[in-house]
Amino acid sequence: MDFEDAASRIESRAALLRNGVTRRDISTGGVHRIARGGFVPHEAWAEAWPNERHLLQVAAFEERRRGGPVVYSHLTAAILHGLPLWGAAPARVHLSGSHHNGAVTRGAPLVSRHRCAIPDADVAAVGRLTATSLARTLADVLRTAPVATAIVMADAAMRRVAGDDSRRAYDSDAADALRGAVARRLRPGARGVCQAREVLDLADGRSESPGESVSRWRLHELGFAPPRLQVRIPGPGPGAYFVDFGLDDADVWGEYDGEVKYRVEEMRRGAALDELISAEKAREDWIRGVTGRRLVRWSTADIRTTAALRTKLAHFRVFPTPSRGLSHR
């Protein structure tokens, strides 16, 4: 879902009544109320991912906003730019500017107004909306968002500018150019700038999913050496396998398994779940056999906190080198 999709789903009370929804349905929660006068079907809200829910909030805000243009910023801008979200949807729609010339009517979603100057170079068109540029958005998010969200968005932005999925290639120069642009927008002494710099230094677009990004941050907090990412292992035929993490200081391979691991393109092409599981077992056996290394897997539940991943890895006797980490204390 993008913003235009979200905007097309917002309906006013009058439109609902014209379409046969009763006043009782509206008053008793038969439809989901996003803002005063702005509704979506209950199932649309229930099925929406957190980033999609925020787009619906932005659409409801736009529907009731009066006045001139505004500049969306922070997490709102990040979601408009298409960066993935980790965790719950933002509670507020974020705007930035030295002043705001649009009145917001009573009942609109809660809004956070950040009073600050936005240079023209830091403003970008995102569809028919105006938001902070990708570099400025990252600078704001890395300072103010929870660290797991920050690393997920930083990695995704790096992947967007530097990744080439068709060739499994990564342009480090392009990634470093974005890294530099973000760094120049981090004002010394600003709130959260230490977190922002740490996340920015660690950001790497070779992480292929939000779960891999959060995993890397947790490994960093546990004191593991920076892992090799998407490590190529020659396969039994002309192809190759790729492993998420090469944890060289622990002499193991690591892989993140999301809840939707088996809802992959192969299933959409008709492969049965048992076939996918069998193929994955053969892959894992091959990797262990040809490299002589164990392969350790973890799930989303294992990276909710650093302590959870520490516990998971400790069960398998996987620790960073003693001089670096704390996971075995």
TrEMBL record:
Q: What is this protein called?
A: Transcriptional regulator, AbiEi antitoxin, Type IV TA system
